[in-house]
Design brief:
Elements (H helix, E strand, L loop, with lengths): L3 E3 L5 E3 L7 E2 L7 E5 L12 E4 L5 E10 L5 E9 L1 E2 L5 E2 L15 H4 E2 L4 E3 L3 E10 L9 E9 L3 H9 L2 E3 L4 E9 L10 E9 L4 E9 L5 E13 L5 E12 L3 E8 L8 E10 L4 E10 L1 H10 L10 H35 L1
Length: about 350
């Protein structure tokens, strides 16, 4: 039987700018209501935006409502905020490693049960234990609570019988920020490294940018990112990007795409300008592309057209073949003339 894959995108609904306390989505079998505690800094927000004291313990609650005719099982996951290469802050599970500047992982501070079951046509409260760091800290600890609906065995069997498989699940994410005071933190940005790489099987130069500070870089943009040969001014590749945000204490690899061009071995320099709503930065970083590295990436790049034969080589081969053909023709003609002379002499 022909098998189709059912792609359900991971819907990250982070409640940051919403005013109502309850949110619904037709894709979900449950509704989410955050129960805002007294130490909420901005009570108009529906994510947890908390002012905490060192060593403070607290219980946070989220009300889950199931309006369907069958029970729904939710799997809560807690993660620190990360930044993806598109400059989008993510609050769910990612494959990226925590940044070295991250002092507190939200998963170590906020804990809850692995599962919560909501009976049909009823409500259930999800409780989480918050243990604030005993030490004083600056800025924000940021992350999110991801609520994923667990697929029932009946649904699995139904999909299997139809030849379908689910690769991604819908998820609801409730943001969490913790802070001990409202003092602003000075923003900073670092260029950690530059190297050749690939994005979606396409060649790119990857600039690893790091926000080592416990604050968001809002209205972040790459004003200019240019790649030149080292010591030269001619731009080989360039890009820019607006409307980004960088999470506290995170890093991400910003790509400068080659747009179908091959990587060439050599020494290069990246020139990058970036800014946020409050600061601006300018970097230059040298890097080298090795021959074996370029070859490996070029072979995997799906956007590079089939390599055409070298025109000079074609011309040389053509000339050689032409000379060879002329030589053979002359040789055959001489043999024929010699044969004719032999016949005449008889």
């Amino acid at each position: 039987m022909k098998k189709y894959s059912l792609f359900l995108s991971l819907l990250m609904l982070v409640m940051i700018s919403l005013s109502p306390a309850t949110s619904f989505a037709s894709e979900f079998n449950f509704a989410v209501t955050t129960e805002i505690p007294d130490n909420q800094i901005d009570k108009s927000k529906t994510y947890f935006n908390l002012l905490v004291n060192p060593g403070e313990k607290q219980t946070l609650s989220i009300k889950l409502r199931n309006d369907t005719d069958k029970e729904v099982v939710i799997e809560p996951q807690i993660h620190s905020a990360t930044t993806n290469m598109n400059g989008v802050v993510e609050y769910g599970k990612t494959d990226s490693n925590p940044d070295k500047s991250l002092k507190y992982n939200l998963a170590d501070i906020l804990t809850t049960n692995k599962e919560v079951t909501i009976p049909a046509k009823s409500e259930k409260k999800l409780e989480m234990k918050l243990n604030a760091p005993t030490d004083e800290f600056e800025g924000l600890i940021a992350g999110g609570i991801t609520l994923i609906e667990k697929q029932s065995e009946a649904d699995k069997k139904s999909l299997k019988s139809e030849g379908l498989s689910i690769e991604n699940k819908y998820a609801y994410v409730v943001g969490v920020t913790l802070q001990q005071n409202k003092a602003e933190v000075n923003q900073d940005l670092k260029l950690n490294s530059v190297k050749a790489g690939q994005v979606n099987a396409r060649n790119a130069i990857l600039a690893e940018l790091q926000n080592p500070t416990p604050t968001y870089l809002n209205q972040f943009e790459i004003v200019e990112a240019k790649v030149t040969k080292k010591g030269q001014v001619k731009t080989l590749f360039e890009t820019d990007k607006q409307h980004m945000q960088v999470a506290p204490n995170t890093n991400f690899k910003f790509p400068i795409p080659l747009e179908g061009a091959s990587l060439e071995p050599g020494k290069y320099t990246l020139h990058l300008k970036a800014k946020s709503s409050k600061e601006a930065w300018e970097f230059s970083g040298d890097f080298e592309i090795k021959a074996n590295e370029a070859k490996a990436f070029n072979e995997k790049d799906v956007s590079i057209p089939e390599k055409e034969m070298n025109y000079l080589l074609v011309i040389i081969i053509g000339i050689v073949l032409l000379v060879l053909a002329l030589f053979i023709i002359i040789l055959l003609k001489r043999k024929k003339d010699d044969k004719n002379k032999g016949s005449d002499s008889e």
